[in-house]
Amino acid sequence: QVQLVESGGGLVQAGGSLRLSCAASGRTFSSYAMGWFRQAPGKEREFVAGVSWSSSTYYADSVKGRFTISRDNDKNMAYLQMHSLKPEDTAVYYCATTSNLWGGPGTYWGKGTLVTVSS
After folding, report:
1. With left for phi above 0 and alpha for psi between -120 and 50, is residue 103 left, alpha or beta?
2. pLDDT at 112 over 90
3. Which pLDDT score is estimated for 60?
4. 86 and 14 in contact (C-beta within 8 Å)?
5. Nearest partner of 36 among 78, 3, 75, judged by Cα
6. 3-state SS track over the chain
7. Contact 46, 39 (CB under 8 A)
């Protein structure tokens, strides 16, 4: 059974940094994409960043240049390093993995970790 567990969320002031971690288990993740999504209060879940099985990375425009996604296949871990945080980055951040398209069959989600950025 695939399990994803996020950690590293918390309260940070605007301009600060946080590093989120995602521990994956249940299968070998090196062949699958890993990603981060977020959901702010009253809004829909949105894509933040992704890393393919070949370690190609891609980002939402809103976080490009501030966030960095990475993965460690030996440890079955994914990370999201966040710098220059803004109040609008406040959200629950979810780790995800997929064998195909995000949100389709074969996509698994963690339970999320809350990031709060104060102004």
Report:
1. left
2. yes
3. 98
4. yes
5. 78
6. CCEEEEECCEEEECCCCEEEEEEEECCCHHHCEEEEEEECCCCCCEEEEEECCCCCEEECCCCCCCEEEEEECCCCEEEEEECCCCHHHCEEEEEEEECCCCCCCCEEECCCEEEEEEC
7. yes
Non-local CB neighbours of 15 within 8 Å, separated by 6+ positions? 84, 85
pLDDT tens profile 42-90 = 999 999 999 998 899 999 999 999 999 999 999 999 999 999 999 999 9
**Phi, psi at residue 61, to the nearest 5°?**
-60, -30
Supply 111's token pair: 């339970």
Question: Which amino acid is located at 63 in the chain?
Answer: V
Question: Which amino acid, one-letter code, is at 10?
Answer: G
CB atoms within 10 A of CB 89: 22
Q: Cα–Cα distance between 90 and 117 in angstroms, integer?
A: 5
| pLDDT tens-digit map of 25-55 | 987 788 899 999 999 999 999 999 999 988 9
